[in-house]
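Contributing new records

If you add data, match the layout below exactly. Sequence lines come first and carry their own label; structure lines follow with theirs. Keep one chain per record. Anything else will be rejected by the validation script.
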Amino acid sequence: MIIPIGLVALVAVVVIAELGRLLVAKLFGYPPERHAIPIMKLPGIRGTTGFRLTLILAGPVAAYLAISMLAFLHFRSAGFAVAASARTVGTTVETFDAVSKLQPGDVILEVDGNTFMGSAAELAAQVEARNGAAVALTVERDGAKQTVTIQPKKAPDGRWRLGVTLDPRVKSTSASLKRAIVYPIDTTIAIASGLVALFKGSEDDDAGGPVRIAAEFRSEMSTSAFESTTSIAMLLGVYALLALALFDLVRVLLLVLFRS
């Protein structure tokens, strides 16, 4: 299944890149049928060096934005882990007051007006300290902040509980967007670092090649079809983007060398 997804990702990146160039060509009144060869000042091709450079770079930029959009959809659906932080509501327990006031994916920002750093133990301690009094939680839901008041309930162990489990994954719209924008860059850095380590002999695994892709695919098999497919497509899309960027780098060098 990896090969079909990889082929689709490659074709999609190339098509989106060419559509990006075509859009720039149309915006600047450049002949659409010639937008793919803006390397040198050939007879009949108009435009400054800066314009032709913009036309070349429009491809990778369009592909980058497309991968970021795919990453946003994935992170918004599946979430992403944040080290040493668990502020996202995972589930709420039936019969507790929280079940009607909190939703999975809500991000807890404050507890009784105090900044919540993200720890299930911290939340439990603050609830216990209230000794049954209502707790005010400020949460972020779909990019908007709101405050809800929740009445704790005594659990069988005698401790006051909110009936909320926290998920270390972040699923908020704003956080997903920020993560998605830098995803291609972060992934490229990770691939480059892995390849350097592999070259130096300090990396035992295939950090940037087929083994990693297969491992990532296996790790996603337990998730939904959408989440597993988008996860693999994102990674393979970055590989395709890197190949496209290298090719366009050659085109830029040719443009600089042969400009007149």
